TrEMBL record:
Domain Ig-like: 55-122
Biological source species: Cnemophilus loriae (Loria's bird-of-paradise)
Protein name: FCRL2 protein
Signal peptide: none
Matching SUPFAM superfamilies: Immunoglobulin
Pfam families per UniProt: Ig_3
Length: 124
């Protein structure tokens, strides 16, 4: 279901004999589709543990346990102003020494924003 499926519904059909059928309709009912609050934003990292060698690849993935979509994502590192990227995945192909720090994913459903717990990445 989507939020826009809220509304009034009824059903109808032909009843009676083949000779003299008539159309009947049910009483209308109201259906309200409610959104699910955005929560449970979490991060996973490759390589595991968030320790990556200088020049290697780092992949961060963001997941949401519950929430009514569509969802948007943004990536942040402590101390950096602008988002590092958008989408549920952030890939740094060749990490540098300045890529160490605490990373966080923010998810939004257009009305609410939820953040992951910061994940520490160490470049060795």
């Amino acid at each position: 279901l989507k939020l826009h499926h809220s509304g009034r519904y009824h059903c109808g059909g032909w009843v009676g004999s083949r000779v003299s059928p008539w159309w009947e309709e049910s009483v209308s009912v109201t259906v309200t589709v409610q959104g699910v609050l955005l929560s449970g934003v979490s991060l996973s990292v490759q390589p595991p543990g968030g320790q990556v060698a200088l020049g290697d690849r780092l992949v961060l993935s963001c997941t949401v346990a519950t929430g009514t979509g569509p969802l948007s994502f943004s990536w942040h590192r402590e101390g950096s102003g602008a988002p590092l990227g958008t989408g549920p995945r952030l890939e740094l192909r060749h990490v540098g020494s300045n890529d160490s720090g605490h990373y966080q994913c923010r998810a939004s459903d257009g009305e609410n924003v939820a953040e992951s717990v910061p994940l520490n990445v160490t470049v060795l």
